[in-house]
Amino acid sequence: MPPIVIIGRFRYSNARIMGVGHDWVEENGDFSHLDGMKRVDTFHISPDRGMAVYYFEDTAKAQAALPVLKKMMLDYAVMFECQITWEMGAFNETLSAKLTGQCA
After folding, report:
1. Domain residue ranges in the chain
2. Going by C-beta distance under 8 Å and a sequence separation of 6 or more, which residues neighbour residue 50?
3. C-alpha closest to that of 30 among 72, 89, 92, 81
4. Among 13, 51, 87, 93, which one has the highest count of C-beta atoms within 10 angstroms of its own C-beta?
C-alpha cells in the first residue's frame, strides 16, 4: 500500500517573515506524536510560498492526523501571517520510481 500524503501549502502575507517561521519550526516544532507519520519533506517555492508534504503509513492514520496538524499549525499561521491550505492524497510509488530511474 502506498503512503498517504498530507500536503500543506503556506502563503505568507510578508515574504520576510517566512524564514523566521522556518527557524521557529526548527526550534519548536514537535510532530513526533502524529501516529504513523513516516517522513516530512519541505519546499521553498518562492519568497512568500512554501509547502510541506507529510507521509503517513495509511489513510486512517493520515485522516486522524489532519485535524491535529491543522490545529497545531493554526497558531503558526497567526504568528507568521500566513494562510495554510491542506490536501490529502496517495503517493504514486510506481510513477515516482519510474521517473527517478530516468535521472542521470
Report:
1. 4-101
2. 9, 10, 12, 18, 22, 42, 43, 44
3. 72
4. 51
Q: How far apart are CA 9 and CA 64, in angstroms?
A: 19
Q: What is the pLDDT along the chain (104 residues), one digit of tens a residue?
A: 889 999 999 999 999 999 899 899 999 989 999 999 999 999 999 999 999 999 999 999 999 999 999 999 999 999 999 999 999 999 998 898 899 999 96
The strand pairing partners of 4, in sequence order, are 56, 90
Q: Is 70 exposed, middle or buried (0-12, 13-18, 19+ CB in 10 A)?
A: middle
Residue range 4-101, CATH number: 3.30.70.100
